């Protein structure tokens, strides 16, 4: 069985879609191919890959409560291609959004459902994930934890000859357990959908989110947004900054 995973985030690196597709691949067997969809230049390459596949899994961000426009362009082309070549693939979808509620991905899921109906494909279902940006950060935090554990182990060996610094391992275990808990909803639903992908069955639409209380999410999201804004040209990403115009479009100098 061949499954093509399509990462539809336009970001070049560190996108949440790549993280969720990585987790999904852990629960899927057979031949796995990963493709990146950013521009029309990617269309033909991806269409060639799906020609002999049985399953396609889209991983994408929610843009303005819907499907990003560069993905819509691809779906139009894929619809024509599948009809022309008589393909009957099974399509699954992992959508993630920045706000906390995964349920916000419902219109996007419906768009994929309608796309499958029009293209003569089988809609397999999907997982909608809220707090995607924050969940994506947890993988960095995990790597930082692993780095700290290694550093503590090296220092412990150098100072006392002890290869197993107990306190460092306890602290690592606590942090790892917390990060795992944040991701638990995602892991459970992706494992469940992985089972359906393997069996070729319908998994339905499931919605989850980072497992933290909303008021904590808002606090951290605000801090994160302010810091990112400062790096991106001032508060609110430079919205309040004085702008110059070129051909009617605002440009930052
Ligand atoms: C143009 C644009 C529109 C967005 N619209 C929404 C939205 O309507 N709702 C939401 O919760 N997040 C929205 N987001 C946030 C993204 O869904 C979020 O950052 C996501 O984690 C990005 O996934 P990626 O890293 O895989 O690209 C938007 C982001 C951008 C850049």
Strand content: 15-25%
| CATH architecture label name of the largest domain | 3-Layer(aba) Sandwich
Q: Please, how many domains?
A: 3
CATH superfamily grouping of the largest domain: Flavodoxin domain
- The coarse overall form would be globular
CATH class of the largest domain: Alpha Beta
Helix content: 40-55%
Sequence of secondary-structure elements: EHEHEHEHEHHHEHEE
Low-confidence stretches: none
SSE arrangement:
Layout: E1 2-7, H1 16-25, E2 31-36, H2 43-50, E3 55-61, H3 69-85, E4 90-97, H4 106-119, E5 122-130, H5 132-160, H6 166-182, H7 184-199, E6 204-209, H8 214-231, E7 244-246, E8 249-251
Parallel strand pairs: 1-2, 1-3, 3-4, 4-5, 5-6
Antiparallel strand pairs: 7-8
Helix pairs in contact: 1-5, 1-7, 3-4, 5-6
Give an overview in words.
The protein has 253 residues and is α/β, with parallel strands linked by helices. The chain folds into 3 domains: 2-132 and 184-212, Rossmann fold, CATH 3.40.50.360; 138-175; 213-253, no CATH class. It is 51% helix and 19% strand. The chain has 8 helices and 8 strands. The strands form 2 sheets. It has a 6-stranded parallel sheet with strand order 2-1-3-4-5-6, with helices on both faces. Strands 7-8 form a two-stranded antiparallel sheet. Strand 3 (55-61), helix 3 (69-85) and strand 4 (90-97) form a beta-alpha-beta unit. Helix 1 crosses helix 5, helix 3 runs parallel beside helix 4 and helix 5 runs antiparallel to helix 6 (166-182). Flavin mononucleotide binds next to helix 1, strand 4 and helix 5. Flavin mononucleotide binds at residues 9, 11, 15-17, 61-65, 96-99, 104, 132-133.
């Amino acid at each position: 069985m061949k499954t093509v995973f399509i990462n539809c985030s336009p970001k070049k690196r560190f996108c949440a879609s790549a993280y969720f597709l990585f987790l999904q691949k852990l629960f899927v067997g057979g031949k796995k191919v990963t493709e990146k969809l950013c521009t029309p230049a990617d269309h033909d390459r991806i269409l060639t890959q799906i020609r002999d596949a049985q399953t396609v899994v889209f991983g994408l961000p929610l843009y303005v409560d819907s499907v990003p426009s560069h993905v819509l362009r691809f779906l139009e082309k894929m619809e024509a291609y599948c009809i022309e070549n008589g393909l009957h693939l099974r399509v699954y979808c992992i959508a993630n959004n920045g706000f906390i509620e995964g349920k916000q991905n419902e219109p996007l899921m419906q768009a994929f459902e309608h796309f499958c109906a029009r293209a003569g494909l089988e809609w397999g279902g999907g997982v909608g994930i809220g707090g995607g940006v924050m969940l994506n950060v947890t993988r960095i935090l995990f790597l930082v934890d692993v780095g700290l554990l290694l550093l503590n182990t090296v220092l412990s060996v150098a100072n006392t000859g002890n290869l197993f610094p107990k306190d460092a391992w306890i602290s690592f275990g606590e942090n790892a357990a917390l990060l795992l808990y944040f991701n638990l909803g995602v892991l459970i639903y992706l494992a469940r959908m992985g089972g359906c992908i393997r069996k070729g069955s319908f998994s339905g639409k499931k919605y989850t989110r980072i497992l933290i209380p909303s008021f904590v999410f808002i606090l951290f999201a605000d801090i994160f947004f302010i810091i990112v804004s400062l790096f991106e040209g001032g508060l609110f990403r430079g919205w309040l900054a004085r702008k110059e115009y070129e051909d009617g479009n605002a440009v930052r100098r």
